[in-house]
Structure formats: C-alpha cells, structure tokens
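Human: I hope this is not a bother. Would you mind checking the protein record under this note? Thank you for your patience.
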Amino acid sequence: MAQSMKENATRANARTAGVAALIVGVVMIVQSILQAAIGVVSTLGYGLGAGGSSVGDLRTTFAPVVAGMQSFGTSVLPIAIGVFLAFWLVAPLAADMRVTRVVLRSLVASGVASAVSLAITVVASLGGAFASSGPFFGAAFPAADGSIFYFSFIGGVQSVFSTFVGVTPLVILAGFLAWFWSSKGRPKASEI
C-alpha cells in the first residue's frame, strides 16, 4: 500500500532525498559551467579568427556565462528542488527496494522535477513576454489575442520536455547513488 506524503516526511527520507538532489544539482552546475566556458572560448576564437585583432564586444563574448546564470534559476535550481521533493515526499527510496522500484521512483522524481521546472519556466517566460513588449500601456502592449503568451507557454513546455529527456538519466543515476548510500551498512536489497 502506498504511503501518504505525511508518512513519507521523515528525516531519513529527507537525507536520502537531499543526497540525490545534491548530486543532480552539482552535476548540472558543473555541466553549465563547462558549457559556458566552451561558449566563451568559441566566441573568442570566432572573433579573433575572423580577421579581428580585438576581443570584440564583451556582451557577446560573455553571453554564454549570462545564459548559464539564467539556466541556474530556471533549470538547475527547480530540477534539484523537484528531485528533493519527489524523493522526500512522493516516492522515497528505501534500502530494501529492488532495482526496478528504484528506477520507477527515479522516473517519478524526474517527472516531478520537470513539473517544478515547467512552473518556473512558464512564469519566467511570461514575465519575459511582458518585459520585452514595451511600455505597459503603449502601442507595443501584447496583442489582445494573447499570441505572445501562447508562444511563451509553448516555448516553456517544449523546453521542459527537452529538459526531462536530458535530465532523466541523471536523476536515475542520482537515485541509484542515493539508494546505495541509504543502504550502506544495512542488509543488501532483495535479488535483482
């Protein structure tokens, strides 16, 4: 029988969920830093290799760093929070689970993390739609038909599906590592 969220909200489940969320967050931060560094180097190489002798516009050169910071707030942090909440309250990991249960619960955690990321992304994209539309009561106000909101929402949903596909293997790996960590010093799980 499935346990309720109130029964799952234990300190042991929070520790295991924290380990999984920490693994996911650290790996995503390292990936983001590496992608930003590669982007800066490639931008510098393109600017210097195109016949220019200067570094070029600093905004263009360091745009990957800004994009990495933005992805921290709209992707890394929501995913890590979603993984924590899922492994703590919705689908906690226990030492006596079978491998298939760990995989299924990791898939649930990835889905919850993607839902949290969807909520943050939609709010950010709708805020961006307002911010880029011009003066609030000016001629550039978003169209009355709501098309700018529709496209912002669709873009956010597409982004989250892409994030789900990219993050699911990482969440499964983090689920296994947290499961191994929680079962350390205890009897081994049932047969695989």
